[in-house]
């Protein structure tokens, strides 16, 4: 019974619940970024490159034979392929996701008050020195 109670206390701590919510929101956000790349960014790139370029189905056959125009899924089942197009798409997803998270963290940090930012950046001895200086000025 003691271990069950200890696990319950651990599981309902605020940090664990916050982490779980963050993971769930992150997974949903990942799907949004996938859709953004697949449905918005890639069509624009395709239009700039002359149309009908689907990077997810771009690959090089390393061993075996695959008829031209075969989809990546079918090609991977019958030959060894280097799926460079799919990698480019996943890399683009990552870059967009990292960029959005960067701006979100930057916005959250900007929302903090200046006193909190200064206190979290300065070493303890600098903060103490400022307090002593301010106290001496008041006397």
Question: Which terms would index this structure?
Answer:
139 residues, elongated, mainly alpha, two-stranded antiparallel sheet
Description:
- With 139 residues, the protein is mainly alpha-helical.
- It is built from 6 helices and 2 strands.
- Strands 1-2 form a two-stranded antiparallel ribbon.
- The termini are far apart.
- The model has no long low-confidence stretch (mean pLDDT 79).
Low-confidence stretches: none
Main β-sheet description: 2 strands, antiparallel
The count of strands amounts to 2
The count of helical stretches stands at 6
Q: Which structural category do the helix and sheet elements fall into?
A: mainly alpha
- CA-CA gap between termini: 60 Å
Rg for CA atoms:
26 Å
Q: Strand-and-helix sequence, N→C? A: HHEHEHHH
Mean pLDDT: 79
What percentage of residues falls in helices of 4 or more residues? over 70%
Estimate the strand proportion.
5-15%
Q: What is the strand arrangement across the widest sheet?
A: 1-2
The coarse silhouette is elongated
Please provide a brief summary of the model.
With about 140 residues, this protein is mainly alpha-helical.
Task: Write the topology of this structure.
Blueprint: H1 2-11, H2 14-48, E1 60-63, H3 72-78, E2 80-82, H4 84-111, H5 114-121, H6 124-138
Antiparallel strand pairs: 1-2
């Amino acid at each position: 019974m003691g271990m069950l109670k200890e696990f319950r206390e651990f599981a309902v701590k605020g940090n664990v619940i916050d982490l779980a919510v963050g993971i769930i929101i992150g997974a949903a956000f990942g799907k949004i970024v996938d859709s953004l790349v697949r449905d918005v960014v890639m069509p624009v790139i395709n239009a700039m490159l002359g149309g009908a370029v689907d990077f997810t189905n771009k690959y090089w056959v390393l061993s075996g034979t695959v008829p031209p125009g075969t989809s990546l899924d079918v090609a991977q089942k019958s030959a060894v392929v280097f799926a460079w197009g799919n990698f480019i798409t996943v890399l683009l997803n990552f870059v967009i996701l990292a960029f959005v998270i960067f701006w979100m963290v930057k916005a959250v940090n900007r929302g903090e008050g200046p006193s909190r930012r200064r206190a979290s950046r300065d070493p303890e001895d600098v903060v103490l020195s400022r307090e002593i200086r301010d106290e001496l000025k008041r006397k």
